[in-house]
């Protein structure tokens, strides 16, 4: 054959050969490629057929199963479903028991899932005696004992489901028998401390508290400055309370962490547990947890700042920008995920802080954070706005060097005041921004025209239920669209509109034209006397005591044109004639 | 008498352009002239018009002459004079000397520009000839009135001045004693200290004319005096904590926010009213043109009381807790409230919600002040920062400074000086000019008081700053703070009682309705577009067709095969495209905003509109103006560029 004898001579040919070799293409024998050969050898015909049959069977089975499931789903009998559900639950429980014996870690995971399902149940409105069945039973319950019982059962179920579980701590306590006592010793201590002073173990808060009281006392003093009063009010109202909450929460977390270390619980269970304790302790919904956790974070930051200002840990400073960067990002995340993640993260952070770990840990933390940045990339646009707002409020402005520095501060304990200010600054910031953004979002939502849904009363028998969404027309862009720190009310001021012109006068076709003619004021307040007089001259001036004859062309200053001349000429003879006639008549009479 | 009758007619003012017209047009005859003409002629009375015309037709020139004569003799016309001045022959004086500056004095364009109110940056859609003529008339009127107003600037004899340090001397180091030593006795008397240590920190207020001063101490001391002559009008103790004090429209009435309720006293110290609907008031503001007393209360309500009729116009729930930071925008009478969450909200009695909300600080807002032109707002917060915001639509901070202890009180003077009270020290900053914001780099003046500051206000029309503090009241001299020229009809410091009463009546007649308060005070000069559109739509619905719609274009039939279907379609398409293009140009999205405009503060020529600082306007109103600083910078940059580039031979022609 030709190719057998063929040999590459030119560089081009050589290259082509090289390529063919590389891709295992047949150079000499053009029938089958090595890959093809390999595949041929890999599976015989029978084998392939069997495999195909197997696949077919699997597919068929799957479709059977699906069909069955569909059929079962369509069954309307409630009893049947109840039985099925119960059966499933039992089975699951059994499996779980087995799993616990065999593989405790997996069992824990499973437990978590169950817990989550329970939580979902709790959050849903099921078993609240609000269903159709429950309502009917409630009516019947007056007369029917059975119905009453059923209702009570239902209520009990509801109670059981909605009960707030103390499971986590209990389970933990169960696991470590010996540690229990230690914990008991530990916990009351902390609790007592809390009760002793509401501000918690944070020495800063102690100070601020005392200083507050001090200043409240000094208020009575007549010579004292009255100015800080207002701020103190806001302070005591606005900040102290959350601060106390934070402290309590913080302690709880710490507590939990120590427990965890001892009981050697796996880390995965921790967030759930903490959440439960949170539920039990402060009776707040999940979304609120986020707020608190953020505050905690701020608290953290402030602590770090303090550390850095003291100059003990220079590395911390390096870490700060990272956290600051992250904050806006956190705001963007879906709530639930964030809370869990953040809690975990936060816990770790604090752990590290407590242990006073230095650089490598911090770096690790940073590396932990970096992946957080990635998923937010598509949201960059929104993020920019946020950051803009942050910049707006946080930019370091140069401080004024004034010759006279207020001396008032000397009267007070300056250090205390500084502390207070620092705390204020630490806690004031992000809360304000987030609240404002939220408010703005709400305002924007409220001002948006609403979509309407419309369900036609007529529909094809058996056909799908049609529902149409009538999209509201997009309004003009908001004035504050690009101003992150501003909410401008877009509502129409109807009181002012009542005074405005609402009909265009005749020669104008566009309101801009008309507006231009009414923009100059004509009142004497805005004009000089001469200008005012001129602007307000009447078009027609009449003089009393004079007869006003009909106007003629000559009167206005036009010399009568040729045509009017003609008319005059034509008219005049007539008049002359009439006059003549009159005269004639008169004369004749005479 | 003759002059009284002759109101100037616009038609006559225009000097006839063409001889033809002049010959064709003669002076309009008035009905009352007919009697006079014959009498001068000595002709017989009666209804002579027709007859005379008929009779006089051959001798028309004579008639015209007579008429002209009568006009000149009877009605010396104002606009004719300048024309006469222009030819040098006629204005030769007795001495034979010529006027070296013939004609009316030139008016500086910038001054005229100040009075122009028509926004010419907005291009109008194509208009009919009739509309165009109306527009031209409006523009001509505006120009004329603004020129007249600019001319009258000559009457503003006083000029403002500032303290200027000798080369490199810091004006902030100059203390009050030095200033008092340097100025004349009358001015030196304006600096005084009232040592009132007994009744606690004082709030104070000057009356609108700047002649009277009222102050109220925390511990119930209320006094009003003519501070120039130091004549005490009244002094009482209300036996209750006084939160704020304010003059109403004149110095005869005084509103005092006491611990419980709002009280109104007259200048004898007699209690006239106790307004129980305004309780626990912390701050007061008086809107002079609307006769409204705005009160901010501890309960979180902003209440507007109309003091002319004694009715509460609006009580707005601010929903932001205790209100104790308030100021008014003198430009549009909008009330600015500062809140503990770092926002400043803008309120009008016509709206239940704030007109705008601005996030200013990370901590709570401690003080707010707005300058007299309504352009800048200064805020200070718990975060120790002092910021100056631009209020013309953008609400962005122009400059920010961190003060060592934060400012608790702020105030603007009439000429744009900013004062901040920090503890027992007041700092004053000055701007470059009147229209520029105060630059916070260097304080203009500083002063230390005997106690912490509790109230600040610049005295109108005087270079005086009043400071209320825990040690009493101090009146300090701040050169360049007050407007040097006052309007004698509006707020005359030297007015007599009769004049005040006269003014009161006039002011009441000119009272602005409360509901007209909105962010843009010139909203009345705009058409209510929404109602207009609505009305149009309803009309179309009612009639079943649009009466204003243009008939669709129907091409005329043409011959010789030019009227083929294809060419017809082509012609139609052409017309359609043309219209579309025009429409797009006028009504295109965002075009009115993007219309090139230069509302900057630089003295650019109005006619050329070719200014280096063309910033696209963000709205139809006067939205974005460039700050002078930026503009100057740009100019500098441009200059630097031009100098930095390779020099070319043509450069010498470029300025």
Keywords:
heterodimer, A: 590 residues, mainly alpha, two-stranded antiparallel ribbon, 25 helices, B: 655 residues, Methylamine Dehydrogenase, Chain H, four-stranded antiparallel sheet, 16 helices, 28 strands, disordered N terminus
Chart the SSEs and their pairings.
The complex is a heterodimer of chains A (590) and B (655).
Chain A: H1 2-5, H2 11-22, H3 34-42, H4 45-74, H5 78-102, H6 104-123, H7 132-140, H8 145-162, H9 167-175, H10 177-196, H11 203-220, H12 228-263, H13 269-282, H14 286-310, H15 314-332, H16 335-355, H17 359-373, H18 380-394, H19 408-411, H20 414-447, E1 452-454, E2 468-470, E3 486-488, H21 494-497, H22 511-517, H23 529-535, H24 553-556, H25 562-589
Antiparallel strand pairs in A: 1-2
Chain B: H1 2-5, H2 10-13, H3 19-24, H4 33-41, H5 49-56, H6 60-74, H7 80-86, H8 109-115, H9 129-152, H10 176-182, H11 185-188, E1 192-195, E2 202-206, E3 212-217, E4 221-226, E5 231-237, E6 242-247, E7 253-258, E8 261-266, E9 271-279, E10 281-287, E11 292-297, E12 301-306, E13 311-317, E14 326-328, E15 335-338, E16 343-347, E17 356-359, E18 365-370, E19 376-381, E20 385-390, E21 397-402, E22 409-412, E23 418-422, E24 425-429, E25 445-448, E26 453-458, E27 464-469, E28 472-477, H12 497-509, H13 529-543, H14 565-587, H15 591-594, H16 628-644
Helix pairs in contact in B: 8-9
């Amino acid at each position: 054959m030709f190719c057998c004898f063929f040999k590459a001579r030119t560089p081009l040919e050589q290259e082509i050969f090289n390529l063919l070799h590389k891709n295992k293409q047949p150079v000499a024998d053009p029938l089958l490629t090595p890959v093809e050969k390999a595949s041929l050898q890999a599976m015989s015909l029978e084998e392939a057929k069997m495999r195909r049959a197997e696949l077919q069977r699997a597919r068929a089975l799957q479709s059977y199963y699906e069909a069955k499931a569909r059929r079962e789903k369509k069954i309307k009998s409630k009893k049947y479903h109840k039985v099925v559900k119960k059966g499933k639950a039992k089975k699951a429980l059994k499996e779980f028991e087995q799993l616990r014996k065999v593989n405790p870690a997996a069992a824990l995971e499973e437990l978590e899932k169950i817990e989550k399902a329970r939580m979902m149940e709790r959050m849903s409105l099921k078993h609240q005696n609000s269903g159709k069945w429950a309502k009917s039973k409630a009516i019947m319950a007056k007369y029917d004992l059975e119905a009453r019982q059923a209702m009570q059962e239902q209520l009990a179920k509801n109670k059981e489901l909605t009960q707030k579980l103390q499971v986590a701590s209990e389970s933990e306590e169960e696991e470590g028998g010996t540690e229990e006592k230690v914990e008991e010793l530990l916990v009351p201590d902390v609790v007592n401390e809390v009760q002793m002073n509401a501000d918690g173990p944070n020495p800063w808060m102690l100070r601020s508290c005392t200083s507050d009281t001090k200043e409240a006392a000094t208020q009575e003093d007549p010579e004292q400055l009255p100015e800080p009063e207002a701020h103190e009010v806001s302070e005591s109202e606005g900040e102290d309370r959350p601060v106390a909450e934070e402290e309590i929460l913080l302690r709880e977390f710490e507590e939990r962490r120590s427990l965890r270390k001892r009981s050697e619980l796996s880390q995965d269970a921790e967030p759930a547990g903490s959440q439960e304790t949170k539920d039990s302790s402060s009776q707040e919904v999940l979304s609120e947890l986020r707020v608190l956790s953020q505050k905690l974070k701020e608290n953290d930051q402030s602590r770090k700042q303090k550390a850095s200002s003291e100059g003990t840990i220079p590395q911390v400073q390096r870490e700060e920008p990272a956290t600051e960067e992250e904050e806006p990002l956190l705001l963007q995340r879906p709530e639930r995920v964030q809370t869990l993640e953040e809690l975990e993260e936060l816990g770790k952070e604090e752990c590290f802080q407590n242990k006073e770990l230095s650089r490598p840990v911090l770096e690790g933390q940073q590396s932990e954070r970096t992946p957080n940045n990635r998923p937010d990339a598509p949201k960059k646009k929104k993020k920019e706005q946020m950051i803009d707002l942050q910049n707006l409020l946080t930019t370091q402005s140069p401080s004024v060097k004034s010759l006279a520095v207020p001396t008032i501060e000397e009267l007070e304990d300056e250090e205390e005041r500084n502390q207070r200010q620092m705390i204020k600054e630490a806690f004031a910031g992000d809360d304000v921004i987030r609240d404002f953004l939220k408010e703005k979002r709400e305002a924007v939502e409220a001002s948006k025209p609403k979509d309407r849904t419309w369900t036609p009363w007529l529909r094809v028998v058996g056909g799908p239920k049609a529902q149409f969404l009538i999209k509201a027309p997009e309004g003009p862009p908001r004035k504050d669209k690009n101003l992150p720190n501003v909410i401008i009310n877009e509502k129409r001021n109807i009181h002012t509109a009542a005074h405005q012109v609402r009909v265009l006068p005749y020669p104008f076709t566009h309101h801009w034209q008309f507006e231009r003619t009414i923009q100059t004021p004509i009142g004497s307040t805005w004009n000089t006397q001469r200008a005012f007089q001129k602007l307000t001259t009447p078009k027609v001036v009449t003089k009393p005591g004079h007869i006003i004859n009909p106007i003629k062309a000559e009167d206005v200053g036009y010399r009568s044109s040729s045509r009017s001349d003609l008319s005059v000429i034509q008219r005049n003879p007539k008049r002359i004639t009439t006059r003549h006639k009159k005269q004639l008549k008169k004369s004749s009479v005479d | 008498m003759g002059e009284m009758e002759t109101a100037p007619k616009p038609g006559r003012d225009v000097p006839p352009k063409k001889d033809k017209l002049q010959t064709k047009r003669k002076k309009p005859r008035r009905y009352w002239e007919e009697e006079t003409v014959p009498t001068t002629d000595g002709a017989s009375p009666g209804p002579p018009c027709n007859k005379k015309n008929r009779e006089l037709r051959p001798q028309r020139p004579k008639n015209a002459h007579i008429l002209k004569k009568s006009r000149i003799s009877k009605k010396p016309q104002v606009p004719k004079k300048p024309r006469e001045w222009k030819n040098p022959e006629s204005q030769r004086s007795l001495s034979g000397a010529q006027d070296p500056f013939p004609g009316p004095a030139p008016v500086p364009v910038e001054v005229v520009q100040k009075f122009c109110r028509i926004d010419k940056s907005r291009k109008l859609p194509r208009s009919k000839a009739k509309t165009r003529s109306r527009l031209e008339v409006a523009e001509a009127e505006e120009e004329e009135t603004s020129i007249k107003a600019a001319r009258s600037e000559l009457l503003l004899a006083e000029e403002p001045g500032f303290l200027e340090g000798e080369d490199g001397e810091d004006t902030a180091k100059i203390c009050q004693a030095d200033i008092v030593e340097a100025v004349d006795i009358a001015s030196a008397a304006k600096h005084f200290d009232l040592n009132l240590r007994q009744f606690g920190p004082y709030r104070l207020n000057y009356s609108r004319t700047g002649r009277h001063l009222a102050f109220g101490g925390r511990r119930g001391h209320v006094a009003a005096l003519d501070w120039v002559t130091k004549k005490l009008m009244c002094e009482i103790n209300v036996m209750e904590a006084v939160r704020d004090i304010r003059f109403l429209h004149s110095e005869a009435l005084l509103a005092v926010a006491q611990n419980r309720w709002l009280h109104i006293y007259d200048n004898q110290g007699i209690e006239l009213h106790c307004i129980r609907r305004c309780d626990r008031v912390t701050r007061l503001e008086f809107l002079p043109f609307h006769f409204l007393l705005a009160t901010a209360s501890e309960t979180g309500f902003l209440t507007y009381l109309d003091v002319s009729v004694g009715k509460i116009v609006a009580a707005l729930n601010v929903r932001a807790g205790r209100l104790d930071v308030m100021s008014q925008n003198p430009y549009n009478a909008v009330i600015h409230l500062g809140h503990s969450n770092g926002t400043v909200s803008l309120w009008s009695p016509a709206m239940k919600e704030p007109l705008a909300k601005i996030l200013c600080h990370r901590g709570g807002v401690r003080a707010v002040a707005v300058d007299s032109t309504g352009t800048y707002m200064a805020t200070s917060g718990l975060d120790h920062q002092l910021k100056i915001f631009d209020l013309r639509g953008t609400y962005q901070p122009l400059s920010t400074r961190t003060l060592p202890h934060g400012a608790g009180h702020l105030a603007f003077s009439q000429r744009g000086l900013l004062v901040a009270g920090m503890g027992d020290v007041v700092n004053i900053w000055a701007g470059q000019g009147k229209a520029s914001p105060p630059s916070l780099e260097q304080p203009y003046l500083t002063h230390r008081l005997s106690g912490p500051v509790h109230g600040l206000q610049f005295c109108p029309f005087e270079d005086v700053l009043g400071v209320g503090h825990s040690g009493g009241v101090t009146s300090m001299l701040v050169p360049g703070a007050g407007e040097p020229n006052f309007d004698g009809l509006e707020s005359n410091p030297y007015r007599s009682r009769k004049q005040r009463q006269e003014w009161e009546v006039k002011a009441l007649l000119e009272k602005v309705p409360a509901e007209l308060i909105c962010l843009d005070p010139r909203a009345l000069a705009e058409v209510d577009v929404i109602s207009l559109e609505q009305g149009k739509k309803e009309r179309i619905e009612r009639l079943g067709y649009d009466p204003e719609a243009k008939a669709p274009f129907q091409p005329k039939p043409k011959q010789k095969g030019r009227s083929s279907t294809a060419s017809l379609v082509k012609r139609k398409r052409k017309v359609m495209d043309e219209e579309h293009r025009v429409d797009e140009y006028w009504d295109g999205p965002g075009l009115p905003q993007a219309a090139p405009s230069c509302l900057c503060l630089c003295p650019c020529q109005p006619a050329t509109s070719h200014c280096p600082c063309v910033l696209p306007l963000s709205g139809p109103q006067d939205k974005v103006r460039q700050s002078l600083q930026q503009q100057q910078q740009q100019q500098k940059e441009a200059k630097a560029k031009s100098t930095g580039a390779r020099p070319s031979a043509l450069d010498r022609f470029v300025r």
